[in-house]
Design the sequence.
């Protein structure tokens, strides 16, 4: 199975900060990576697919980059609605696997 | 716009089975795949497996092999996940998610999610 490792596990930031979350795969997944946002008690929400494609009505302050084994999710200017937990997921092969999550907290 | 509506809370005993449904409204699930993802209390997301609503093909996580069965009913646009031989470690919220968007035949799990079904296993 492909292991996905996110860093950091927790991130404290202020509104307006630029935030970067990293996701590393244990082997190459090409660009088959998605990012999700999850708020307490809610289902995850797809933000980015194929490493850098923005889903639907997701705000443009979210961006993704990377290929192979290293990927990043960047929030250019953190907004109050962005405090949540973020997960990466590889879909290069089965089983699909998620990172352990990164909680973005208010500083 | 598609909505996925899951069945309600399940409280069951160790050793029993549970069957959770995921019904699409607003659009059909065919020909998309549907994944099941679970989340234990305070924990992260765990992919369990997926089923193609086009041909019924399944992919299960090794951890769940032999204990899980995913099925699809195209006539009602409903997907089911049955988990057997339950233990307290299976207590979690179970989500269905449509595999999408599809790019070159691959899709993440998923672009649309159900609301989640809480399954509690307790003696």
Sequence:
């Amino acid at each position: 199975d492909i292991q996905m490792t996110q860093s950091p596990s927790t991130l404290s930031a202020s509104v307006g900060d630029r935030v970067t979350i990293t996701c590393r795969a244990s082997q190459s997944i090409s660009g088959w990576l998605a990012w999700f946002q999850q708020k307490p008690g809610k289902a995850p929400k797809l933000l980015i697919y194929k490493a850098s494609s923005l889903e639907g009505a997701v705000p443009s302050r979210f961006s993704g980059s990377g290929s192979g084994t290293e990927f990043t999710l960047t929030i250019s200017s953190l907004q109050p609605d962005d405090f949540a937990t973020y997960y990466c997921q590889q879909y290069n092969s089965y089983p699909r696997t998620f990172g352990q999550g990164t909680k973005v907290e208010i500083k | 716009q598609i909505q996925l509506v899951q069945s309600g809370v399940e409280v069951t005993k160790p050793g029993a089975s549970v069957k959770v449904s995921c019904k699409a409204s607003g659009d059909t699930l065919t020909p998309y795949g549907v994944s099941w993802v679970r989340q234990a209390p305070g924990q992260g997301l765990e992919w369990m497996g997926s089923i193609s609503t086009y041909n019924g093909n399944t992919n299960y996580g090794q951890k769940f092999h032999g204990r899980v069965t995913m099925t699809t009913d195209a006539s009602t646009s409903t997907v089911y996940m049955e988990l057997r031989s339950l233990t307290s470690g299976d207590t979690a919220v179970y989500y269905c998610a449509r595999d999408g968007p599809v790019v070159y035949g691959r899709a993440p799990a998923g672009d649309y999610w159900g609301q989640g079904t809480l399954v509690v296993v307790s003696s």
Observations:
- The two ends of chain A are 36 Å apart (CA to CA).
- Chain A touches chain B at residues 1, 32, 34, 36, 38, 43-46, 49-50, 53, 55-56, 87, 89, 91-92, 94-101 (CB under 8 Å).
